UniProtKB/TrEMBL annotation:
Keywords: Signal
Single Gene Ontology MF annotation: unfolded protein binding
Listed Gene3D superfamilies: Skp domain
SMART domains: OmpH
UniProt-listed InterPro entries: Chaperone_Skp, Skp_dom_sf
Cellular component annotations (GO), alphabetically ordered: cytosol
Family classification: Belongs to the Skp family.
KW Signal (keyword) present: yes
Any one GO BP annotation for this protein: protein stabilization
Protein name: OmpH family outer membrane protein
Length: 178
């Protein structure tokens, strides 16, 4: 009599495992290429143009600082014979301070978490939100459990094009592939 509940328990376990394996096999997955989607989105070109403009302006400021330092060194070299040691050292200290200012400017603007990267994040955030919302809708509409990003890194060594949902995301965003 004790054998019967054990057999039922084993049968229920086997049936449960079979059902869970079957449901795992039925899950759908796909991938997108976020770089491809970004490059197709018309707003991305506007963001890139604005970033280029801002970057060029900051690069010009950095170049002006560097040119100013070079000019100061050239003037110091030209006047070196006319200056006392104390005057020479004072001017050298002034030049070194300008160099520190130039380095600080470059770090503040182009360094890690600098103004350029903050501006980039600020400008891209609305576009990324639109794309994420479109990805979410496409994933739900197609009952996808997992959606990979092909552009996110070398994680995927092979992709079957029939699982690429990038075009669906573009369609969801109202962008036609030309």
């Amino acid at each position: 009599m004790v054998k019967r509940p054990i057999i039922l328990l084993i049968l229920c376990t086997i049936i449960g495992l079979t059902l869970s394996v079957t449901s795992v096999e039925a899950q759908k997955f796909g991938y997108i290429d976020s770089e491809y989607i970004l490059n197709k989105h018309p707003d991305y070109k506007l963001v890139q143009d604005e970033l280029t403009s801002i970057s060029n302006q900051w690069k010009k400021e950095a170049q002006d600082l560097e040119q100013g330092i070079k000019t100061m060194y050239a003037n110091l070299k030209a006047e070196e014979v006319l200056l006392t040691e104390e005057m020479y050292q004072e001017r050298l200290v002034t030049i070194k301070e300008k160099e520190k200012e130039a380095v600080a400017f470059n770090n503040r603007v182009f360094g890690i978490n600098g103004q350029y990267y903050q501006k980039q994040a600020e400008l891209l955030q609305p576009l990324q939100s639109k794309i994420y919302d479109a990805i979410d809708r496409v994933s739900k509409r197609n009952s996808l459990v997992i959606l990979f990003d092909k552009a996110a890194g070398p994680l995927m060594i092979y992709t079957d094009p029939r699982h690429d949902y990038s075009e669906f995301v573009l369609e969801e965003l109202g962008i036609e592939n030309k």
